[in-house]
């Protein structure tokens, strides 16, 4: 990372902050791009900041076949401006019925980078998800054989379990046996929200000197705790799944993200929903953070005095875990403000972005 460190005027000179940061082009390892009008409205935000992104398959209907993933990949590329230098990395949506050979073929043909486990009913468009992980054991066996990573939405769906405990219970009841039964299956624990998840990931033994489990961390889980959802009233734009937890969990996530530990990397979980679907008697889960994702992460790293570890989190740990090359080229962020709009027009319906109406402290400039 090349950065001319100098103190900001008016700031403590013992804490020097660079005027700009130039880092290797980053990737986003967890993105919802949607389809149709919404895809056309949002795809460019991700492509502007990131070289590649893991594309979540929870469309309606979900992306369960190689043909569906190819079609979706084509629609993503068509939705982008002509000059966009962006590679969507496609994922398969696991159902109780998915065929192991379909996944293995998709992986071999370079269409499926990974497969996503949604416990049925856990989140948006997860009705076709897995009802019992035992149902996909033949699939996991095949994925382990071909070296295809399993991405997990790590929450149990039992309504008896308190919503704030669903991640911790998943780790114990679902993920622990899966890791034991498939000792060389690579796993990404998506959008970690708890100290339990951080400890779980760091406690797992490596395979031949490489981590077999990693976790993505979102900007929103780094920036607010559950209090924000209820500050002065109910705030639907802070609602996502897994739901934000207590402050001590947020602090554990910040320590993990900024630690330099290669098992933690950037995954925004940007998840746009039209404003009426969020501001509703039964509002959808999801935070649309793509427009200023890198700026938000940079702010967290600055606050934690860990800007020297920013590039590893944004641009190195993810590709190394997935066994993909690091990107060529760079992006530059300047220590300058941007005002986040209150609302973005998507051509059809408005979408409220993460940090609407706030000022970021970093600005992507190239
Ligand atoms: O908040 C979320 N929104 N969490 C998810 O797991 C899915 C996502 C979506 O697709 O809207
Ligand atoms: Zn997601």
TrEMBL record:
Record-listed substrate binding positions: 32-34, 58, 153, 241, 273, 285
Domain Amidohydrolase-related: 28-331
Binding site for Zn(2+) 1: 30, 32, 116, 269
UniProt keyword annotation of Zinc present: yes
CDD domains: DHOase
UniProt GO BP: 'de novo' pyrimidine nucleobase biosynthetic process; 'de novo' UMP biosynthetic process
Superkingdom as given in the UniProt entry: Bacteria
Binding annotation for Zn(2+) 2: 116, 153, 191
The protein's enzyme class: hydrolase
Annotated EC: 3.5.2.3
Cofactor note: Binds 2 Zn(2+) ions per subunit.
One GO cellular component term noted in the UniProt record for this chain: cytosol
Keyword set includes Protein biosynthesis: no
Pathway where this protein functions: Pyrimidine metabolism; UMP biosynthesis via de novo pathway; (S)-dihydroorotate from bicarbonate: step 3/3
Cofactor: Zn(2+)
Catalytic activity: (S)-dihydroorotate + H2O = N-carbamoyl-L-aspartate + H(+)
Keyword terms, alphabetized: Hydrolase, Metal-binding, Pyrimidine biosynthesis, Zinc
Active site: 269
Known function: Catalyzes the reversible cyclization of carbamoyl aspartate to dihydroorotate.
Family membership noted in the UniProt record: Belongs to the metallo-dependent hydrolases superfamily. DHOase family. Class II DHOase subfamily.
Protein name: Dihydroorotase
């Amino acid at each position: 990372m090349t950065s001319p460190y100098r103190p900001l005027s008016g700031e403590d000179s013992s804490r020097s902050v660079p005027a700009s940061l130039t880092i290797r082009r980053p990737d986003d390892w967890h993105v919802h791009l949607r389809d149709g009008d919404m895809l056309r409205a949002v795809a460019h935000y991700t492509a502007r900041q990131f070289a590649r992104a893991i594309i979540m398959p929870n469309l309606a209907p979900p992306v369960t076949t190689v043909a569906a993933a190819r079609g979706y990949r084509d629609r993503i590329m068509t939705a982008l401006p002509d000059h966009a230098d962006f590679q969507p990395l496609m994922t398969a949506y696991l159902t109780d019925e998915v065929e192991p050979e379909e996944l293995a073929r998709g992986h071999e043909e370079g269409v499926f980078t990974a497969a996503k486990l949604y416990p049925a009913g856990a989140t948006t468009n997860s009705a076709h998800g897995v009802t019992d992980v035992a149902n996909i054991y033949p699939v996991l066996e095949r994925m382990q054989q071909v070296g295809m990573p399993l991405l997990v939405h790590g929450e149990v769906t039992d309504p008896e379990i308190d919503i704030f405990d669903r991640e911790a219970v998943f780790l114990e009841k679902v993920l622990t046996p899966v890791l034991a039964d498939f000792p060389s299956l690579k796993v990404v624990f998506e959008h970690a929200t708890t100290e339990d998840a951080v400890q779980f990931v760091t406690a797992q033994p490596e395979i031949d000197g490489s981590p077999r489990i990693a976790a993505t961390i979102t900007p929103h889980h780094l920036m607010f705790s559950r209090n924000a959802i209820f500050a002065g009233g109910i705030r639907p734009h802070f609602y996502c799944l897994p739901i934000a937890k207590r402050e001590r969990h947020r602090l554990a996530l910040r320590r993990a993200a900024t630690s330099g530990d290669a098992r933690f990397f950037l995954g925004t979980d940007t998840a746009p929903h039209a404003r009426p679907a969020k501001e509703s008697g039964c509002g959808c889960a999801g935070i649309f953070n793509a427009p200023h994702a890198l700026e938000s992460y940079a702010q967290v790293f600055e606050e934690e005095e860990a800007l020297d570890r920013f590039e590893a989190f944004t641009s190195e740990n993810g590709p190394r875990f997935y066994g993909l090359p690091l990107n060529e080229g760079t992006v530059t962020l300047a220590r300058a403000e941007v005002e986040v709009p209150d609302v973005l027009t998507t051509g059809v319906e408005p979408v409220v972005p993460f940090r609407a109406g706030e000022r970021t402290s970093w600005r992507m400039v190239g």
